[in-house]
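re the bet — no i am not wrong, look at it urself. input seq straight from the record:
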Amino acid sequence: MRKFLIALAALVAVALPSGVPVAAQAGGDNAALAINTRDGKTVYRIAIKVSRNDTGVVTNTNIAFAYASCADCQTYAIAFQAVLVTSNPTIDAPTNMAIAWNDQCDSCTTFADANQVTVTTDGPVHFTPLGNQMLASIRHDLHGLKHEDLSLDELAATVNQLADQFTWVVTTQLVPVGNA
């Protein structure tokens, strides 16, 4: 447990950029944290978020962290984040990380995947009706993975396909506020 707490502290230290006030970081981060310490248990955490940033500091953080210390268990963390920047930032340093950690596991499966898309626009934007529909579908499909019996390779391939769809929506389905 001591190793886990040290790792978690390191994760927080890496995720929060130094020299940037915490108030500037508030609200724009996304995290899927899956912690499993029970034998035979499955833990799935999905986080999908659209963050809007109109400040001069873009330090949004997207983290998928899966930690397992158990026997015959499965632990999954998947985080998708879109950062919509409507300013000309002086600091542009978003962070995207995925960590899957097995700690003294026996027959464990641990998976973490993080996908972050940052788009700078000329002003406030919103998603088209198709974009909103596709984001809802991606969210539904990510949560549906909990009920699938996929190998790690199949899971990774499916998550990559959903990440590609997410990127396409975020980069092609935004329109200025006031437009359809």
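see?? The first strand starts at residue 30 and ends at 36. told u. also The CA atoms of residues 44 and 146 lie 7 Å apart. so pay up
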